[in-house]
Amino acid sequence: MTKSRVIPCFVLALATGVLAATEPPEAVISSKSIRAKLYLPDPENGYYRATRFDWSGVIASLEHDGHTYFGQWFEKYDPKIHDAISGPVEEFRTNGAGLGYEEAKAGETFIRIGVGVLRKPEEPRFAQFKTYEIVDPGKWTIRKGADWVEFNQDLTGPAGYAYSYRKTVRLAKDKPEMVLEHSLKNTGRRAIETNVYNHNFFVIDGKPSGPGFVIKFPFELTATRDLKGIAEVRGRELVYVKELEKGQSIITNLKGFSDSAKDYDIRVENSASGAGVRVTGNRPLSDVVFWSIRTTLSPEAYITMRIEPGSEFTWNIAYNFYSLPVSTK
Questions:
Q1: Which regions of 15-137 does DSSP assign to beta strands (E)?
Q2: Shortest CA distance to 142 belongs to which of 5, 17, 18?
Q3: Which of 76, 328, 82 is nearest to 213 (CA)?
Q4: pLDDT attached to residue 17
Q5: Residue 225 and residue 292: Cα distance in Å, rounded?
Q6: Which of 235, 279, 282, 294 supports an S-S bond with 244, CB 3.0-4.6 Å?
Q7: Do 250 and 227 meet the contact criterion of CB atoms below 8 Å apart?
């Protein structure tokens, strides 16, 4: 297989070759209340070229009502580091790996949706944080409007797998809302079974993870792992007891959700800066993980899908941004 080139459908330096090789292609969209900068997928010059996360819809920054919600949270940057990425980004996992990974022999290929066809090396098991050799990134097509960007990846892979994946990042015209609209169509011969989660990587007003932040859910929470005295579950909320120091982290699954999409409803608020965001999805949760270090916090909501050949699966994730009442700051 040969590498396919990104085909943008709007005039951008990416298409003209004016952009220096060291500068990643990007786009800016805005509405009455939101301004966001996105990095665009590109196999040669893209900001993110690792093989863990979906390349589309990487949000470098987002501003609303004087608050910032996403940004760089890591110290070392390299486009091929698995988590050198920002914003609400997604990872597709099939049996904890990729489509066709388990049946592929060393030297053969498998798929990571939103990334491409990858080469499987000689290894005992899949390594989530490893950057694999990309054999074919598929065909990326990008369209843009003043308040939206649409990403399309068409890919034909090994063992009868093929798909057409579309993600649109859209800002609402009449309210402070960003929606991620997704479609995954199975254009191959085999069923696609996968789950996908959004890592989020919130960086809110540059505040360190600690007291002042609260994460709210519509159901009673149970944490499955030790939160190390840094955070606590209190009913339907996860709150910080201490500020994380550099090098510290917490991670846990959160249980208590039902099979209703109404439980995909997460609020992250910071009383110190007065910023809030509500994240809602239109599909039922299959898992929830919470991960945090000092510089970022990430409620990770999973959904699961099975797509038969010729069928299409769609899902949306909405982000509503708001300021907290003065009395709670």
A1: 26-30, 34-39, 58-64, 67-68, 90-93, 109-112, 116-119, 134-136
A2: 5
A3: 328
A4: 37
A5: 13
A6: 294
A7: yes
Exposure string (b/e) for 176-191, b if CB count within 10 Å is 16 or more? bbbbbbbebbbebeee
Low-confidence ranges of the chain (pLDDT < 70): 1-21, 326-329
> CA 305 to CA 225: how far, in whole Å?
26
| Tokens of residue 42, six digits | 């590109």
Per-residue pLDDT at 5: 44
Q: What is the pLDDT of residue 144?
A: 98
In degrees rounded to 5, what are phi and psi of residue 278? Answer: -115, 125
* pLDDT in the model for residue 21: 53
pLDDT at 7: 44
Asked whether 291 and 257 are in contact (CB, 8 A), the reply is no
Of 27, 34, 51, the C-alpha closest to 318 is 34
Residue 176 DSSP label: S
> Across-strand partners of 233?
238
DSSP 223-241: ESS--TTTEEEETTEEEES
- Token pair 């090396």 is found at 121
What is the reported pTM?
A: 0.92
